[in-house]
Write a structure and sequence with these properties.
The chain is mainly alpha-helical and 211 residues long. It has one domain (2-210). It is built from six helices and no strands. It has helices at 2-48, 56-75, 77-91, 96-116, 118-153, 157-210.
């Protein structure tokens, strides 16, 4: 039973660590995409002599993506650091009884980390889904627009940039939807555990009060 619990904890920890890393990659991807889209559109506007074009709205969207991504990195720093520390400690635990104590301590730390970051994880679920859909729409718009431009005017070097940016936007959007989905699944499991722990704490408190 003990080994089964430890194996389940380690499996969940590895999965959650991977999910956090995927979330970070998605954020960095959104930042990189925002910079690329903004710079590309501004350069094209400077070349044409007219930076106030309908496509300049995409440059503003790119700037907003950079700002939101930077904000999100700051907000999720403690969670990322905490999960990374627990994950690294789990990779090389001591042997024997000391190892059992270490695993138990990590379980307690993981529970405390989740409890302290429940509001942030809840926002991750919502914002991940919203940003994922928006990025997929943005990427699809860029790809369709460039394919249409290629069909009507022929292929030029600038088409490559927009197609690449569109592909990145779709990929990052899909990653955002995946992380939102799995954060939701983890939240359900950990919320149920928090409720059970609260019930146990209440029973223990009542017993202590009755002594």
């Amino acid at each position: 039973m003990k080994n089964k619990t430890e194996n389940k904890f380690r499996s969940e920890l590895r999965s959650f660590f991977g999910l956090i890393m995927l979330n970070m990659l998605a954020v960095f991807g959104a930042i990189g995409l925002g910079i690329a889209v903004s710079v590309t559109i501004l350069i094209q506007g400077a070349r044409s002599g007219d930076i106030f074009t309908p496509s300049s709205a995409l440059a503003l969207l790119g700037a907003a993506a950079v700002a939101c991504g930077a904000y999100w990195l700051i907000q999720s720093f403690d969670l990322t650091k905490g999960v990374t520390n627990i994950y690294n400690a789990n990779r090389h635990p001591p042997k024997g009884e000391a190892g059992d104590v270490a695993i138990t301590a990590l379980m307690i730390k993981m529970t405390a980390l989740y409890r302290g970051n429940r509001p942030l994880i809840a926002r991750m679920k919502v914002l991940g889904a919203i940003s994922g859909v928006l990025l997929i729409l943005l990427g699809g718009f860029l790809i369709i627009a460039e394919l249409d431009a290629i069909q009507s005017s022929g292929f030029v070097l600038d088409n490559i940039d927009h197609l690449i940016n569109g592909g990145i936007a779709v990929a990052v959007g899909v990653a955002g939807l995946i992380t939102a989905r799995y954060f939701s699944l983890y939240s359900k499991v950990w919320d149920a555990r928090m409720e059970e722990a609260a019930k146990i704490e209440d029973v223990l408190r009542q017993k202590l009060e009755g002594i």
